Amino acid sequence: MVTITNHMPTAELQALDAAHHVHPFSANTELGREGARVITRAKGVWLTDSEGEEILDGMAGLWCVNIGYGRDELAEVAARQMRELPYYNTFFKTTHVPVIALAQKLAELAPGDLNHVFFSSGGSDANDTNIRLVRTYWQNKGQSDKNIIISRKNAYHGSSVASSALGGMAGMHAQSGMIPNIHHINQPNWWAEGGDMAPAEFGLARARELEEAILELGQDRVAAFIAEPVQGAGGVIVAPDTYWPEIQRICDKYGILLIADEVICGFGRTGNWFGCETLGIRPHIMTVAKGMSSGYVPIGASIICDEVAEVIGMDEFNHGYTYSGHPVAAAVALENLRILEEEKIVDRVRDVTAPYLKQKWEALLDHPLVGEAKIVGMMGSIALTPNKESRAKFASEPGTIGYICRERCFKNNVIMRHVGDRMIISPPLVITPDEIDEMFVRIRKSLDEAHAEINERGLLKSAA
Ligand SMILES: *Cc1c(COP(=O)(O)O)cnc(C)c1O
């Protein structure tokens, strides 16, 4: 057996990786030729790679490392819990202290009467749980035909077959197919799809598509509507202000369940504990994962309101994961929540860090490539465009320009992601103003280099 260590030469690690490791969301053959970047350690907002480069993580891993890297407290709690009770399940009339404590804490933090928690290992399986929850809810109320879930195009709700069907990513649907009784309406993406409408008018029009869908499918067929308060993986799409109040009105009027997928927005990302507080919505169910443990261990959950929990509880719920409420994951998540709360990280985001980041982010509008700059709390996006006035798309294949820009960021040791030709950030919530300044030095340099490159390659052209 080969012993694989941090001290192996990068090229050897890359060759072994290419030989045996299939990467998610990657063209693996091409990646194997190029070689993946090997990350060896991390502290605060900084990653170190196998070449000793220090990289500023503008994405908090995958939107999850809210408290930053390298907090010993979480390692200590994990070690202690592994020694005491490394595993026990929560099926068949058993429970344990970490899961009791975490469920109680989540009920306390969650708004309104979201007081009941069903655990999973991440966001995808939590959304699978939600599909079963809402269908079982209506079955138990004697309305088993009420089983259609309405979602949105370009939404991300996970990567399992059911949660990707629930999501609205066309590329994922093309590979894994759909499941029955999921219906998609359009997203509130004004920049790309608003046409000649003013943002406020467009927001209302897109919300009213929910009402139209309910009327068309039948109120007695629609079980629930699911949405991210701010679409994350779709490109940090922030709906116009008119959108969410109208969605809430429609859900109330037709009595359909509202599921807020808070996997990214939860645990401080938007400047409140949950995105639904920032946007003024009242969900019956919230999906959580990512920031709940700051990514240190895999854990997710559905947080359920009193009434839905009561109806589900009327009968046996034929559902559960081996790792539902895993004691080590629960103990680590609880410690993460303690840190977020005691160090007032969410308050600091709301009052200090997010306003500072917003000012710097919106100032990017002075850059020749940047047409729109959107930000809520600590998640932001910019739309790259060859013509700001007409909100033009590039003539090149969508994503070409975004990819060039991302590669420049990568080279300049700042992690930003591209979604098509939008660039997005979601840094650890603990990033300091000085680190934000450093991040913008690197972002501006990368944008300038990308601008020069696309100019040189003749790509600065609008689509017809
Ligand atoms: C990441 C994400 C998921 C999926 O979570 P996993 O832990 O990757 O399964 C679901 N919903 C949203 C909004 C996400 O961002």
Précis, in short:
42% of the residues lie in helices and 16% in strands. It is of the alpha/beta class.
Q: What distinguishing features does this structure have?
A:
17 helices, four-stranded mixed sheet, single chain, 464 residues, Aspartate Aminotransferase, domain 1, 2 domains, alpha/beta, seven-stranded mixed sheet, Aspartate Aminotransferase, domain 2
Question: Please, could you describe this protein's structure?
Answer:
The chain has helices at 10-20, 28-34, 60-63, 72-84, 97-109, 123-140, 161-166, 170-176, 190-193, 199-217, 243-254, 275-279, 306-312, 327-342, 345-363, 400-411, 433-456; strands spanning 39-43, 46-49, 54-57, 114-120, 148-152, 182-185, 222-227, 257-261, 285-288, 300-305, 370-376, 379-384, 414-415, 417-419, 422-425. It is α/β, with parallel strands linked by helices. It folds into 2 domains: 37-70 and 344-456, Aspartate Aminotransferase, domain 1, CATH 3.90.1150.10; 73-342, Aspartate Aminotransferase, domain 2 (3-Layer(aba) Sandwich). The termini are far apart. The strands form 3 sheets. Strands 4-10-9-8-7-5-6 form a 7-stranded mixed β-sheet, sandwiched between helices. The protein has a 4-stranded mixed β-sheet with strand order 1-2-3-13. The longest helix has 24 residues, at 433-456. The structure holds pyridoxal-5'-phosphate.
What's the number of structural domains? 2
**What is the name of the CATH architecture of the largest domain?**
3-Layer(aba) Sandwich
Average pLDDT number: 97
**Structural class by secondary-structure content:** alpha/beta
What's the CATH H-level homologous superfamily of the largest domain? Type I PLP-dependent aspartate aminotransferase-like (Major domain)
Give the number of helices.
17
Low-confidence runs: none
Instruction: Kindly state the percentage of residues in helix.
Output: 40-55%
